[in-house]
Amino acid sequence: MASKWLKGLAGVAIVGATGFGVFLWITAPQRQDPSVWANLGDPDLAHGREVFFAGGCASCHAPAGSEGDARLILSGGAPIKSNFGTFHAPNISSDPNAGIGGWTLAQFGDAMTRGVGRNGEHLYPSFPYGSYSRMTPKDINDLFGFLKTVPASDKVAPAHELGFPFDQRLAIGGWKFLYFNAAPRVELADASDMVKRGQYLVEGPGHCGECHTPRDALGGFKPSEWLAGGPNPEGEGTIPNITPGSKSIGSWSAGDIAAYLETGFTPDFDSVGGTMVEVQKNMAQLPASDREAIAAYLKAIPAVP
């Protein structure tokens, strides 16, 4: 009897170990094929600067409260609080040791589009690679080239402050399995080139959904409520609905939205506030055509009341 019990227990252990092995294999970090980053040529630094502001890099990676040229000192920003713990944005300056000055384009591109670190580890999705995964190799190349020109800083950001089980990076593979993909967030039939450009900016580098879309208990987007607003991911206040069904900007014209992104003033002459202050500063650095494209996209997506 005991022998049968032991055999049964061994069988369960083998099945469990096999299942865990399959889980690790399926959810292992996946880099891009190296050919993705090959033969891209010299980066367009002026365009890389635009991508930098479209991606809001300074908002997280520059010291809190930075103004002017200080926003290009990317030594790490203010703590990012969440329900899972506190994250600290790393140094992404041109410093070869504390920053990313010693990285290759492939390492940088895989971090941006696959959430895979320099050493092959899963990156936490507090870094919005779930959105950046939609970026083109050219934009990644241009951005990386621009980042090499910003001042070097030898400051090392603090480690993330996470409790168990969120401090286990293996679990991120399961999160990616459930939520990570590069598909469009919404399907827009017969979209104009302007709307398509806006979709790229909003769903990709602009990563607007990271704050404006509600999440489930595991931190994944609720796809049916894209850009419908909800609790602040950092735990304080709420983030507004920015779909055409919004009570706040639903009645705004595309011109109103574009003007707001440029000037920070609403049609009622109120001014931008909260975390949107940093976002608006970034949007003001973009070409007018990009702000107009973002506005066109926000008027074209499904309305969520």
Protein model, in words:
By secondary structure, this protein is mostly helical. The chain has two domains: 34-179; 193-300, Orthogonal Bundle (Cytochrome Bc1 Complex, Chain D, domain 2). It is built from twelve helices and five strands. The strands form two sheets. A three-stranded antiparallel beta sheet has the order 1-2-3, with no helix packed on it. A hairpin with a 6-residue loop joins β4 and β5. The longest helix has 25 residues, at 2-26. It starts with a helix and ends in a 5-residue tail after the last helix. The mean pLDDT is 90.
Task: Please summarize what this structure is.
The protein is mainly alpha-helical and 305 residues long. The protein is 40% helix and 4% strand.
| C-alpha end-to-end distance | 63 Å
Task: Describe the main β-sheet briefly.
Answer: 3 strands, antiparallel
Name the helix and strand elements from N-terminus to C-terminus, one letter apiece: HHHEEHHHEHHHEEHHH
Summarize model confidence as the mean pLDDT: 90
